[in-house]
Amino acid sequence: MPLEIRKLIPLFLFCFFLLSNSLFSQDLDQKITIIAKNQSLGEIISKIGDDGKIFFSYNPQSLPLDLKISIKVKDKPIHEILDMLFRKNGVTYLVKENHVILKGRQKEEPGRTKEKTIATGKHTISGYVKDKETGEVLIGVNIYNRDLHLGTTTNAYGFFSLTLPSNSYDLVFSYIGYKDFLKKINLEKDEVIIIEMETTSLPINEVEIQGKNKQEEVRDNSLDVFRFSSKTLSQLPGFAGDIDIIKSLQAVPGIISYGDGSSLFYVRGGNSDQNLILIDEAPIYNPSHLFGFFSVLAPDAINEMSVYKGDFPAKYGGRLSSVIDIKARDGNLKRFSFSGNIGPYASELTIEGPIIKDRLSFIVSGRVSTLNWLNNLPTTLKSFNVLFYDVNAKVNFKLDNNNRFYGTFFYGYDHFEQTNESTYPTSGMGWNNLACTFRWTHTFSSKLFSNTTICYSRYQYDLYINNEQQDKWYSSISGLTFKTDFTWFLNPKNTLHTGVEITNHNSNPGNVSLPNDQTDPSAYPIAKYQSMEYDFYLGNDQMIGKRFSINYGIRLPVWQDIGPTTVYQFDGYHNFIDSSRISNLSAYATFFNPEPRINVRYLLNNYSSLKAGYSRTTQFFQVLSSSVSPFTSLEVWAPSGPNIKPQKSDQFSVGYYSQGFKTKLSFSGEAFYNMFYDHIDYKDHANLLFNHLLEGELREGKAKSYGIELMLKKAGDKLTGWIGYTYSRTFIETPEVNDGKEYPAFYDRPHNVCLFLSYSAGKHWAFSANWIYMTGGAITTPIGFFYNNGYSIPIYGDRNNDRLPDYHRLDLSVKWTISKPQQRYQHSLILTLYNAYGRLNPFSVNFDKIQDGSGNIIVPSNLQGGYDLIPTTISVAGIIPSLNYQFKF
User: Which of 237, 332, 544, 669 could make a disulfide contact with 813, Cβ separation 3.0–4.6 Å?
Assistant: First the structure.
């Protein structure tokens, strides 16, 4: 084990033992003192739970909670107090895995013989869970029977399946932001049910949450998976008054953003192109509007977002670091509604409703920029035109209980240009994203569920070289995918997942387009790429006994490059040798890299668990860019081939999770170590644009990252939030770069802190704050200068030998709900302050000269003369205020 990760183990173990022994212990032999005079049984039970750190589970209807009792005991074991308290009051109790279950005496009807239920086999209860108001399916709902300690959750389509012995059961359906739903069922045959859950904004009595499946919550939760519901996203302070799906990831430990004005993010030491973003299973190659200030995904169209960091299930592949799986809303099946957000930078409108009530629904959400009023500010030096917009649409058709169809469409467009006194723009650029998905879900039986998907994604970019002549440089990437996967609910302890996926990838790394089919001898045509990817995966979620759960699987990807294209050969020194033309559909490179994955959890008790995992992932498509600019629109995608090996990663992780048994606090801690193979690096001063030999600019090496992630969360009716801390390091070693010495990646930022708080003050006011701190990014600066013929020439040492100043930012939001809760038309005003205290966070450092005697810095500076060189920084933005009007009907 590397020395660096060994240094982190004592800190991790300290946090583990501290919390497990102090917050979540439960011992019936410990001694406590209880003194009560004429108090209710319910109050005494609550006091025993608070003093003894005991969690009681019971049905309030079956116990005499209002019974007045007097009791006085000092320094007695808890089990003796329980015997004394319950025996004479008709209450029995039993302990299951440190869980105290209370039961009252069953009342027998006169003249009726007591019957005994005998299990005569097993049957399956399955179905869908929906929102009662809209009819949309709910993802990740917990379904649990507390007597058997067995349960399940709804999948990404709201479907669940649970097999139990024949008997009568109370099933509890619980979901954050919704009232718990209790379903009594006499399971004598297979049952198919539809559950509709109601939203709630009311406080939930602590005594009556005994049905909530804390064991499942502990078993499922860890830092490698983080889920945002639409309700959680709405609480975060957005950029410029708009909820930002991608920037919300900054609040997750282990995810580091580039900074202001960028949608780039880095997960556990991986590069930004190693993150897979999916919208209804279609990949989004570039999630940015306005160079990254806004995300392309409109928040009103989002149902839920799941974030997987490294240990993602076998059904996901193609990236090394993370998967951001976004599910779009299905649309209201019950009634028509509309909502919107009007702001100074962008405005949004959403319309949804049933086409056929309870069977066919639609949702359309559109957003457009409103930025050109900035041209009128006196500080504007040049005129510019900015336009971006996006459209999200979806239809949801329920053919019958076994067949559902979904169609999703997304399109995002950006255009930016600067102009002067002439008719034509002096410079400009544009880019767009397109994603279309058609899905069919089919229920073969109560235990077998399938999802079949056809999706198409495309990203293309245009850089105008000469607008007057309509010259431009353009690049693109696209993919057409067919996949089908099956979920087999074998039994309550085993859920199998398997599927196949076939994708046709196309990439144009960048070519010059001239009007009237003209040619430019300096614009050498660059070969386009076409590849086929075939994937098969198999995984199982298995429970072993009551404490062990294991998720294991394997993904088998096959990558094949096919013509037509041109392949270039290089010698051992990366010098061009020869080229060969590949004919149409001829294969010229094939890769096969099995990807085993395993994740084990051990339940210490009902409130805490340990986790360990290993995953191997492979990436065949990568962005080629040696720039460290925060702007993300200009990208060159290239596949693995004869000159680019597939990148591979091995990640090891261990973690601990604790959920407060009586409190609403939870703690997570996870340590990871990641090894990257065939990591792509670049020679010094690499040229990747207008270069048909760009593969010769690449170098291959290895990288490693390691770290620890900690998070403390608080759930509550009024005050909610979390604080997260990440310590991580990322180092790269490439034989032909930096003299073969190891150096930190430019996104290596050892310390990262995120603090989020949300407070609801009554029915009309809500406040939220989000504070982020990061160590400054690594950069390369001169270690000295020498002078020759009047020129000062910088001397550079090791790569990334210096750092930018530390980054920190505070975002604030105040929401005033104008309407009353019961009104149909809901509207509110939201005031946000992005970077509330005006921190100027640099993303670039330049070395300029003092031009005059007063010390004024001129950029660009005079390169001649003996003036002193001093560093100057460039920042994106100071305080950005916004006042938005939101409405919903």
Answer: 237
Number of Cβ within a 10 Å radius of residue 686: 17
Distance CA 672, CA 356 (A): 50
- Looking at residue 591, its pLDDT comes to 96
> Is pLDDT at 108 greater than 80 in this prediction?
no
Distance from C-alpha of 513 to C-alpha of 117, rounded to nearest angstrom = 78
Numbers of helices and strands, H then E, in the chain: 5, 55
Please list, residue by residue across 536-551, b when 16 or more beta carbons sit within 10 angstroms of its beta carbon and e when fewer do.
ebebbbbbeeebebeb
Helix (H, G, I), strand (E, B) or coil at 55: coil
Q: How far apart are CA 364 and CA 369, in angstroms?
A: 17
Q: What DSSP designation does 238 have?
A: P
Quick: pLDDT tens for 708-757: 999 998 877 788 888 999 999 999 999 989 989 999 999 999 999 999 88
Q: In which band, very low, low, confident or very high, does the pLDDT at 693 lie, cut at 50, 70 and 90? A: confident
* Helix orientation angle between 41-52 and 78-86, rounded to the nearest 10 degrees: 170
Q: Can you tell me whether residue 101 is helix, strand or coil?
A: strand
Q: How far apart are CA 436 and CA 424, in angstroms?
A: 35
Rounded CA separation 262/809 (Å): 14
Is residue 858 predicted with pLDDT exceeding 50? no
Name the token pair of 13: 């173990």
What b-and-e string marks burial along 272-289, b requiring 16 or more CB atoms within 10 Å of the CB? Answer: bbbbbbbbbbbbbbbbbb
49 sits in which H/E element: helix 41-52
Rg (alpha carbons) of the chain, rounded to whole number: 30
Q: How far apart are CA 413 and CA 288, in angstroms?
A: 10
pLDDT over 70 for what percent of the chain?
A: 79
Closest CA to 424 of 465, 474, 375, 364: 465
pLDDT tens per residue, range 41-58: 888 887 887 777 777 767
Model confidence at 9: pLDDT above 60: no
pLDDT the model gives residue 157: 86
The answer to whether 122 and 163 are in contact (CB under 8 A) is: yes
Instruction: Identify the pLDDT of residue 629.
Output: 60
| Nearest CA among 386, 363, 364 for reference residue 375 | 386
Residue type, 136: E
0.90 cut: is pTM over it? no
For residues 122 and 185, give the distance between their C-alpha atoms in angstroms, rounded to a whole number.
14
Whole-number Å distance between alpha carbons of 312 and 548: 19
Would you tell me how many other CB atoms lie within 10 Å of the CB of residue 456? 15
More confident residue, 322 or 518: 322
Using CA atoms, how far apart are residues 633 and 474, in angstroms rounded to an integer? 12
| Three-state secondary structure call for residue 356 | strand
Q: What tokens does 414 get?
A: 């950006």
* Higher per-residue confidence, 121 vs 382: 121
Report angle CA 661, 666, 669 to the nearest 5 degrees. Answer: 130
Q: Taking the alpha carbons of 444, 446, 448, 453 in that order, is the dihedral positive or negative?
A: positive
Q: Which helix (H) or strand (E) holds 369?
A: strand 360-369
Strand 302-309 with 383-400, pairing: unpaired
Strands 255-257 and 782-788: unpaired
Length of the chain as a residue count: 889
The continuous run of DSSP H or E covering 346 comes out as strand 346-356
Rounded Cα distance between 839 and 122, Å, is 63
Other CB atoms within a 10 A radius of the CB of residue 566 amount to 14
User: Could you give the C-alpha distances from 687 to 509, 680, 696, 700, in angstroms and in order?
Assistant: 13, 15, 10, 16
- Collapsing DSSP to helix, strand or coil, 216 comes out as helix
Q: Which of 146-155, 159-168, 689-698, 809-818 has the lowest mean pLDDT?
A: 146-155
Backbone angles phi, psi at 105, to 5 degrees: -70, 140
635-253-734-571 Cα dihedral, nearest 10 degrees = -30
Asked which of 192-206, 737-751, 830-844 is least confident by mean pLDDT, the reply is 192-206
Q: Which tokens hold the place of 126?
A: 């399955």
